[in-house]
């Protein structure tokens, strides 16, 4: 029977194939690897034919919530096997995800029984059908997601639903698809029930290119608040915006994107703690970002995404605002991964994540016409939190704005295991590593060089736990000494000092000579190269007969050239 063979299929392990392709396993901790293997084992012992109805219902509901607005969407899951269909028919909450189809609507309303309805509709399609069914069943609607042109939204809220009351409505999303025109204001008490007890039900609100008056009862007791792309006429003051936020003490997810917020003098006492907040996303001028972060705390935050745009009105305080954003006390936690990028010349981005707590932090700061400089910001970060760099095990750097002053602060990453250098000049950090490694084996050219010393008075390597160096999109053909010359010398010095770096990866680099590849393979336990950018010419190594002589000459030449 065909249905039987289908029911015995296992869930494919596609995600693990992607992990292998992306090389994610290189950065796995033991705990993460164990979780991944346990998840893979569950796929082999739990075929879909044996999943309990409760689990299948959750899967179906999740699929229904992510289905496209048009077409039959999630309805296909009810026509796969008899077991799936029986579970789907017995789940009223699934049929409450209405598909706006003339023939399906009556049947779905019956099968949903008394469950709160979930309606997601684009008013640019089938406006009359959608408006009529929403108006007739507004008392049962629990989730309403409407989008469309400004004309369609005006007609829907004014002509069709008007002053209708929706006592079950717990989630309202309105997205205006018109890119230009007059501001779209919604009625302050739209769908608002006259019953006082309804004001205590946790709700979710999403507004894009439209707004409710700032005294609307919708701006209270929210668990999810999403405000984006406001018209200038919608613009609140920072006091009004913060008042809206703190009126929802149980807020869990906060998104603010281009709300046109104006900075004014605060007339309330802050800071205020949002103890249940799990994620925050802010894309505003840096002056607004700084005010929000100065006046709110997030003890339980897990995901942070802050994009600070230029603030022309505050050019003289830009540096202090950067410190305010980076050094927020709830951001300066213990992380394992740190990535520093400069996607363009006028901005830089910092990404961090933690293996143990799954916390992620992403801060992007745009400087406008000013070139970014990370040194002062990292210096203040070190002063504010000594533990920020202490647990970093993976560092990915992709910015020319990282000079010697910045690297001096990044030396605090004492547990660093993987260092990736992408599209930058790697000589400053490689030279710093080489000088420290040479000092540890008794070779020095400047006595004032700073070196770490342990409790026994023994010199310590810079990044003593370093196990992998990766060069990505680097030009290795610079004049002598080139990045690969310094890397070869570094590998020899670390091996001589009994603190070897066993793995090296070279990807998408240019002007890579065969001599460099041979020495890198010899000096490491594991060497990887993608085969791109090899220079077929012969490299002049100076005629040195051994690695030691070559390394000492490179080190001496670096000192003479004053590279560091």
From TrEMBL:
Record Gene3D superfamilies: 1.20.1280.50
Protein name (Swiss-Prot/TrEMBL): F-box domain-containing protein
């Amino acid at each position: 029977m065909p249905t039987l063979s289908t029911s015995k299929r296992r869930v494919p392990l596609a995600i693990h194939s992607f992990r292998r392709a992306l090389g994610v396993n290189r950065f796995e901790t033991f705990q993460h690897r164990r979780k991944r293997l346990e998840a893979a084992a569950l796929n082999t012992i739990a075929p879909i034919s044996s999943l309990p109805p409760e689990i299948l219902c959750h899967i179906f509901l999740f699929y229904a919530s992510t289905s496209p607005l048009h077409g039959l969407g999630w309805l296909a899951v009810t026509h796969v096997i008899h077991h799936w269909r029986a579970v789907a028919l017995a789940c009223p909450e699934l049929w409450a995800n209405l598909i706006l189809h003339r023939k399906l609507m009556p049947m779905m309303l019956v099968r949903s029984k008394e469950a709160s309805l979930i309606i997601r509709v684009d008013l640019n399609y089938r406006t009359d059908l959608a408006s009529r069914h929403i108006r007739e069943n507004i008392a049962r609607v629990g989730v309403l997601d409407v989008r469309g042109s400004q004309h369609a939204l005006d007609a829907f809220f004014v002509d069709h639903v008007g002053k209708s009351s929706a006592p079950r409505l717990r989630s309202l999303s309105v997205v205006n698809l018109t890119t230009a025109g007059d501001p779209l204001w919604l009625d302050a008490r739209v769908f608002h029930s006259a019953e006082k007890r309804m004001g205590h039900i946790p709700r979710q609100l999403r507004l894009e290119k439209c707004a409710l008056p700032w005294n609307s009862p919708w701006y209270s007791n929210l668990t999810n608040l999403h405000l984006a792309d406001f018209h200038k006429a919608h613009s609140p003051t920072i006091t009004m915006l913060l008042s809206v936020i703190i009126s929802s003490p149980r807020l869990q997810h906060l998104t603010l994107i281009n709300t046109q917020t104006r900075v004014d003098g605060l007339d309330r006492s802050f800071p205020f703690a949002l103890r249940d907040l799990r994620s925050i996303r802010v894309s505003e001028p840096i002056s607004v970002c700084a005010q929000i972060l100065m006046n709110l705390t997030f003890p339980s935050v897990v995901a942070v995404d802050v994009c600070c745009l230029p603030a022309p009105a505050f050019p003289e305080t830009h540096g202090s605002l950067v410190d305010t954003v980076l050094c927020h006390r709830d951001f300066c936690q213990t992380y394992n991964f740190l990535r520093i990028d400069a996607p363009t010349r006028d901005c830089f981005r910092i990404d961090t994540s933690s293996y143990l707590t799954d916390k992620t932090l992403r801060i992007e700061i745009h400087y406008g016409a000013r070139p970014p400089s990370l040194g002062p910001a990292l210096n203040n970060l070190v002063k504010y939190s000594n533990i920020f760099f202490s647990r970093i095990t993976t560092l990915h750097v992709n910015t020319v704005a990282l000079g010697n002053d910045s690297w001096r602060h990044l030396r605090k990453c004492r547990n660093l295991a993987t260092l990736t250098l992408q599209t930058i000049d790697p000589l400053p950090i490689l030279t710093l590593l080489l000088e420290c490694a040479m000092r540890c084996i008794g070779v020095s050219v400047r006595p004032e060089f700073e070196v770490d010393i342990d409790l026994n008075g023994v010199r310590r390597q810079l990044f003593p736990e370093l196990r992998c160096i990766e060069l990505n999109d680097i030009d290795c053909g610079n004049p002598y000494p080139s990045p690969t010359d310094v890397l070869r010398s570094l590998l020899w010095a670390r091996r001589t000092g009994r603190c070897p770096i066993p793995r090296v990866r070279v990807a998408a680099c240019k002007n890579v000579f065969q001599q460099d590849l041979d020495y890198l393979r010899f000096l490491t336990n594991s060497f990887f190269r993608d085969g791109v950018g090899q220079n077929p010419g012969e490299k002049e190594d100076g005629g040195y007969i051994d690695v030691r002589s070559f390394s000492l000459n490179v080190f001496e030449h670096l000192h003479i050239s004053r590279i560091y």
